[in-house]
Amino acid sequence: RELQFIRYRGGTIDGYPSRLHYTSDYFFDNVKKGVWKNVTEEIGGEPFSKTINFMSTHPDSYQQLKDNPSFLAVIKEQEAEIMKRAMFFVPKKRVASVAAKINNGDIIGITTSIEGMDVGHTGVALWMDGTLRFMHAPIAGSKVQITDVPLAEYLLKIKKHSGIMVVRPIEG
Q1: Contact present, 24 and 165 (Cβ < 8 Å)
Q2: What is the SS3 assignment for 134?
């Protein structure tokens, strides 16, 4: 029930388009539901301005869109709504300077340079021995992995990573 609540628009499964496919949309919906706080701007984020349209421009990459072409119009509307929002990110070259403001357990969305996408990977902030690491959201069937290097260093090693968005779970 909890996964359904956080992964679907308004917490309700109503077909494929009700899933929160884009991470920035996933973050926005959960802030709206009052379970997360987006702290990206307050920790030093800057405006994130990008065209978000990967799904609608690559429908053949999604079996559900190929099987149900009517979903494409809904996805396009969702993408248009995402692009109306003020979004923020911390560029990867600045992550080390804001790391101390990121809490253990914060959810990290790694922004990407891939055209049409907002975030390419997500995981959890993990402080180990005074160093901010990144616990990867695993691929089904894989083990959870934690970066061997600090989050800032990890980001700098991967060209398509452009920075991070950060949300904080609200205890309740």
Answers
A1: yes
A2: strand
pLDDT tens by residue, 124-165: 999 999 999 999 877 777 788 999 999 999 999 999 999 999
pTM of the model: 0.94
- Sequence-distant (6+) residues with CB within 8 A of 47 are 86, 87, 88
Rounded alpha-carbon distances, angstroms, from residue 33 to 29, 113, 117, 123, 151: 6, 29, 23, 20, 28
Contacts of 1 (CB under 8 A, 6+ apart): none
Continuous H helices in the chain: 2-7, 23-32, 54-57, 63-67, 71-84, 95-98, 151-157
Tell the burial category of 139 from Cβ atoms under 10 Å away from its Cβ (0-12, 13-18, 19+): exposed
